[in-house]
């Protein structure tokens, strides 16, 4: 496995680590949340230099290094994409995310902020909100959002000057296509778990 792919995978693994700390809080809620937030903040200072070092060495969409590529700016940053299919898919993806950015932000950040605040206040005995319902809110709405992106990005248009309204360094680690597949599979599992929870309650 080329070095670029191995490093990308290792850096990506910090994302499931953060989710594990948020959902399982192995060191208690406050300590686990604190570690997770530190990792989230610190991660960009490692992932962004990795992206900047290798962004002209692989396709941002599929992550491959062996195909003929073309250059394309995403906002102010220049990336490379495989000439066939990848550049088309990427432009549709970026347009979709830009057009629906407010909905996507709401679908991801509102459940996240709700979860962190209510779990923290519960841990401090300031309020009481059931953990299982908190997990449902966090997982179900984020899962609906990311799964929707993974299936619906095709309705975006092939715009000439794409931009991306979220941090792009996380998508570079595996390539957008592979990241969407991971999010789709995990998201579908979270939706199933959430629906089972609703059925039982």
- Structural Rg: 18 Å
Helix content: 55-70%
Structural class: mainly alpha
Give the CA-CA distance, first to last residue: 46 Å
Reading side by side through the largest sheet, how are the strands ordered? 1-2
Walkthrough of the structure:
The protein has eight helices and two strands, in the order αααββααααα. With 201 residues, it is mostly helical. It has one domain (3-200). Strands 1-2 form a two-stranded antiparallel sheet. A hairpin with a 2-residue loop joins strand 1 and strand 2 (77-82). Helix 2 (14-24) packs antiparallel against helix 3. The protein is globular. The model has no long low-confidence stretch (mean pLDDT 95).
List the helices and strands and how they pair.
Elements: H1 3-12, H2 14-24, H3 29-54, E1 69-74, E2 77-82, H4 86-99, H5 101-123, H6 131-152, H7 169-174, H8 176-200
Antiparallel strand pairs: 1-2
Helix pairs in contact: 1-3, 2-3, 5-6, 6-8
């Amino acid at each position: 496995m080329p070095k670029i792919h191995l490093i990308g995978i290792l850096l990506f693994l910090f994302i499931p680590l953060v989710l594990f700390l948020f959902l399982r809080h192995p060191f208690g809620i406050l300590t686990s949340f604190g570690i997770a937030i530190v990792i989230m903040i610190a991660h960009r200072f490692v992932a962004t230099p990795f992206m900047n070092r290798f962004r002209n060495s692989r396709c941002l969409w599929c992550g491959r290094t062996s195909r003929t590529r073309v250059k394309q700016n995403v906002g102010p940053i220049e990336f490379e994409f495989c000439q066939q299919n990848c550049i088309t898919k990427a432009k549709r993806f970026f347009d979709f995310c830009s057009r629906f950015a407010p909905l996507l932000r709401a679908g991801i950040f509102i459940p996240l902020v709700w979860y962190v605040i209510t779990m923290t206040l519960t841990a401090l005995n300031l309020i009481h909100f059931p953990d299982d319902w908190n997990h449902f809110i966090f997982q179900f709405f984020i899962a609906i959002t990311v799964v929707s992106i993974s299936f619906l990005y095709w309705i975006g248009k092939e715009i000439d000057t794409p931009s991306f309204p979220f941090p792009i360094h996380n998508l570079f680690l595996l390539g957008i296509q592979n990241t969407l597949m991971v999010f789709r599979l995990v998201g579908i599992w979270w939706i199933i778990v959430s629906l089972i929870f609703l059925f039982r309650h």
